[in-house]
């Protein structure tokens, strides 16, 4: 990661933490009121092929004793009404500002993968994770909606895993490597703007 990209991340994260503090308080209170504790969902993700970190999100699902793998149709029944809104607006990802400030993530980069997929595809992720992981990125903008549709059709954890590993991992990696070859602060800013505009447009269309 370049010094300019890290400085950009720190300054923007600090600004957004101040601006979004009321949103964090409201969302946390709403989750506690409607769904109870815990407010946050913490899951292990990989910073590189050897280094894990704890990714923080607002909780959007009912808690179960054992949970693993990516979210597909097999987990849809666990999404709470509040969680559905948070996912649609991506407000569930606001707590990741803390991950950015710590240096676990950047605003823009490949989405942080689960350990099981890094261990399954070490060479692929060895290349992808040369870029610091991010909240959004080229793969998120181009492929996320299609990925959601593919995984939503899955009815078991095994099917979700197979579809994600066979269809999503290689396609997202290709896009992540395209981003890596052209990465710059200006392009990061453009991808962030496109993410915000696209999410806003998507929310208006669904409403």
What does this structure look like?
The chain is globular. Mean pLDDT is about 90; it is low at about 205. The strands form two sheets. A two-stranded antiparallel ribbon has the order 1-2. The protein has helices spanning about 5-20, 20-35, 80-90, 95-100, 115-120, 120-130, 140-150, 155-180, 185-205, and strands at about 40-45, 50-60, 105-110, 135. It has about 210 residues and is mainly α. Helix 1 (about 5-20) runs antiparallel to helix 4, helix 6 runs parallel beside helix 8 (about 155-180) and helix 7 (about 140-150) runs antiparallel to helix 8. It has nine helices and four strands, in the order ααββααβααβααα.
- Overall shape: globular
- Radius of gyration, CA atoms, in whole angstroms: 17 Å
- Terminal Cα span: 38 Å
- Number of E strands: 4
Estimate percent helicity: 55-70%
Task: Going across the biggest sheet, name each strand in turn.
Answer: 1-2
Q: Give the SSE string.
A: HHEEHHEHHEHHH
List low-confidence stretches. 203-207
Continuous helix count: 9
Largest sheet entry: 2 strands, antiparallel
- What percentage of the residues does DSSP assign to strands (E)? 5-15%
Question: What number is the mean pLDDT?
Answer: 91
Structural class: mainly alpha
Spell out the key features of this protein.
10% strand, two-stranded antiparallel ribbon, 207 residues, two-stranded parallel sheet, disordered C terminus
Can you describe this structure in just a few lines?
By secondary structure, the protein is mainly alpha-helical.
């Amino acid at each position: 990661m370049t010094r300019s990209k890290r400085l950009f991340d720190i300054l923007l994260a600090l600004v957004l933490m101040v601006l979004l503090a009321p949103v964090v308080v409201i969302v946390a209170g709403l989750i506690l009121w409607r769904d109870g504790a815990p407010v946050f969902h913490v899951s292990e993700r990989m910073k590189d092929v050897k280094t894990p970190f704890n990714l923080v999100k607002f909780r959007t699902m009912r808690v179960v004793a054992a949970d693993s793998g990516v979210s597909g149709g097999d987990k849809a029944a666990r999404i709470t009404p509040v969680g559905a809104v948070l996912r649609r607006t991506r407000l569930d990802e606001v707590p990741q500002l803390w991950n950015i400030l710590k240096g676990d993530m950047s605003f823009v980069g490949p989405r942080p993968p689960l350990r099981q997929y890094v261990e399954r595809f070490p060479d692929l992720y060895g290349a992808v994770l040369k870029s610091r992981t991010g909240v959004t990125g080229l793969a998120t903008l181009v492929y996320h909606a299609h990925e959601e549709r593919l995984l939503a059709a899955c009815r078991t954890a095994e099917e979700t895993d197979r579809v994600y590993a066979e269809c999503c991992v290689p396609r997202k990696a290709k896009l992540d490597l395209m981003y890596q070859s052209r990465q710059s602060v200006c392009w990061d800013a453009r991808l962030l703007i496109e993410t915000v505009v696209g999410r806003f447009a998507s929310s208006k269309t669904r409403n």
